Amino acid sequence: MNAISPPAGDTGASVVRAMGLSSGYAGTPAVQDIDLAVHAGEVVVLLGANGAGKSTTLLTLAGELTPMAGSVEVLGLGARRGLDYRARRGLGYLTEGRCVFMELTGWENLRLGRGPAERALEFFPELEPHLAKRAGLLSGGQQQMLALGRILAARPRLVLADELSLGLAPIIVRRLLAVLRAAADGGTAVVLVEQHVHQALGIADRGYVLHRGRVVMSGSGAELRARASEIAAHYISGEA
C-alpha cells in the first residue's frame, strides 16, 4: 500500500478552519459554536452519538450547507463556495452509505473519478479480480473500498468521510482506516466521522467529541483514548 504523494503547493497550513460555526436545517441549528481546525497530513475524527451533529458538520465543511453563524474556510474557500468549487480545489467527500453506481462495473466506477483507475489499486489491490463485476454484486466492504479508492486516486487535498465503516466487519474497518492513515501520511487532510471509537482514535492525530450539537471534548488521539469512559458517557442519552 502506497501513501499519496503530497498535494502540490501544500505548505502545512490549515486546510479546514471553523470558528463559532453554527449550521443546521430550515433555520434550526443542529450544531452551534463549533471551533475546529484540520491541517495537511492530519486525521481528525468527529465522535458522538447519533444526532450529535457530526454529519451536519461534514455537510457544512463540504459546502452543502451554508453556515447560520460563525466562519468557515475550506481549501482556501469561504462559506459561499459550494461543493462543486471545493471538489475542484481538491475535496473528496465520502458520504454515509455506499457511494458507488450499482449498475456500473467496478472499472466503470473508478473511471468516473478524477484520477487514474489504476491508482486506486495501489491502495486496494484486492479489488482488481472483482472490477469486471457490477458494483451492486460486490460485498459491502468491496463497495466501500471502490468508493474510497476512486476518491484517493485523484490525490485529494482533503477527504471528508462520513461513517466509513457502517455495517462492515471489523477486519474491513481496520483495512479502510489504515488506508486513510496512509493518505494522511502522504499529505492529505482527513476528517472522519466514525462510530468505531477505539479504532478511529488509533489512527487519529486529534479528535473532537460532539454532544447535542456542541464540542464537549477535544484532544490528541492518545489523550482521547485515555478518556474513553468519558467519551462513552456522551453516547448515553440524557448525559451531559
UniProtKB/TrEMBL annotation:
Pfam families, per the entry: ABC_tran
Record carries keyword Repressor: no
PROSITE patterns with a match to the protein in the record: ABC_TRANSPORTER_1, ABC_TRANSPORTER_2
Keyword annotations of the record: Amino-acid transport, ATP-binding, Nucleotide-binding, Transport
The UniProt record lists the keyword Zinc-finger: no
InterPro entries named in the record: AAA+_ATPase, ABC_transporter-like_ATP-bd, ABC_transporter-like_CS, BCAA_Transport_ATP-bd_LivF, P-loop_NTPase
GO biological process: L-amino acid transport
Matches recorded under Gene3D superfamilies: P-loop containing nucleotide triphosphate hydrolases
Residue stretches making up the ABC transporter domain: 16-237
GO molecular function: ATP binding; ATP hydrolysis activity; branched-chain amino acid transmembrane transporter activity
Family recorded in the similarity comment: Belongs to the ABC transporter superfamily.
Protein name: ATP-binding cassette domain-containing protein
Organism: Nocardia bovistercoris
Lineage: Bacteria, Bacillati, Actinomycetota, Actinomycetes, Mycobacteriales
